[in-house]
Specification:
Structural class: mainly alpha
InterPro entries: DUF445
Keywords: Membrane, Transmembrane, Transmembrane helix
Order of helices and strands: HHHHHHHHHHHHHH
Largest sheet: none
Organism: Mycobacterium xenopi 4042
Protein name: DUF445 domain-containing protein
């Protein structure tokens, strides 16, 4: 596809963000064209106004000439007012430092602060954000989406993939360090001792530890059925250097099957 056709499909916002030189040149040409058109209308209104005044000066002009002169005069005044208003926003008209001109240049910080305050108070305030989130019903929509079997299976598969990658990236030393520094340290704190002791005493008194141990044993058994490679890798790593590799492999396989 040629370059001009490609540029023609770019929107104004996209070309502005991309800072395309060709798009900048197109905007400059369009601005010059609009300036010529606006100036042409102003000159035309001025010519019509002067012609009507000349016709009325002779005293023989028709009545409609006055209406045309008034319309041309209104067009001249409106054009000059619009030019002054737009120019005064960004710079001094004709370079004359007229008060209350070049507003954006002089007060851009105040305008930015005011705009930020408006957005913060009308769009980002906690009550408004809370209302928008409540109206969006994100949990309800997410629940309906996950209630479909294909979506639930997709989320489960993606989650399992991410967890498997994370587990493979973790090193045993790092895991042990985290357990020692966080879990074991927290458990060893004094405030955890009495509640944990009362919980264990209740479990032992009601013989609930058997169900817990059985549950853990079942979980470990089901995990070992699908963890042959992991068990084999651990056995091979922890086996002494003098042990043959074949016996290590057979031991790992036997432990997995059992």
């Amino acid at each position: 596809m040629p370059a001009p056709a490609r540029r023609a499909g770019i929107s104004f916002a996209e070309s502005f963000v991309a800072a395309d030189p060709q798009a900048d040149a197109d905007r400059r040409r369009a601005l010059r064209r609009m300036k010529v058109v606006a100036l042409s209308f102003l000159v035309g209104a001025s010519v019509v106004f002067l012609g009507c005044r000349w016709a009325q000066a002779g005293g023989t002009a028709a009545a409609w000439v006055g209406y045309v002169r008034a319309a041309a005069e209104a067009g001249m005044v409106g054009a000059l007012a619009d030019w002054f208003a737009v120019t005064a926003l960004f710079k001094h008209p004709l370079g004359i430092p007229i008060p209350h001109t070049a507003i954006i240049k002089r007060k851009k910080d105040q305008l930015g602060e005011g705009l930020g305050t408006f957005v913060r108070e009308n769009f980002l305030s906690p009550p408004i954000v809370e209302s928008k989130l409540r109206d969006a019903q994100i949990p309800s929509r997410l629940g309906k989406w996950l209630s479909q079997i294909e979506h639930a299976q997709r989320v489960a598969a993606e989650t399992a993939t991410v967890l498997r990658v994370l587990v493979e990236l973790l090193r045993d030393d790092d895991v042990q360090h985290v357990i020692d520094r966080t879990i074991m340290k927290r458990v060893a704190e004094p405030q955890w001792g009495p509640p944990a002791g009362r919980l264990l005493a209740t479990l032992l008194a009601e013989n609930r530890q058997e169900a817990l141990l059985q549950l853990l044993a079942d979980r470990a058994f089901h995990w070992s059925l699908n963890a042959g490679e992991v068990i084999q890798r651990v056995v091979e790593r922890d086996s002494p250097s003098w042990s043959p590799g074949s016996s290590t492999t057979s031991s790992a396989t036997a432990s997995t099957v059992s």
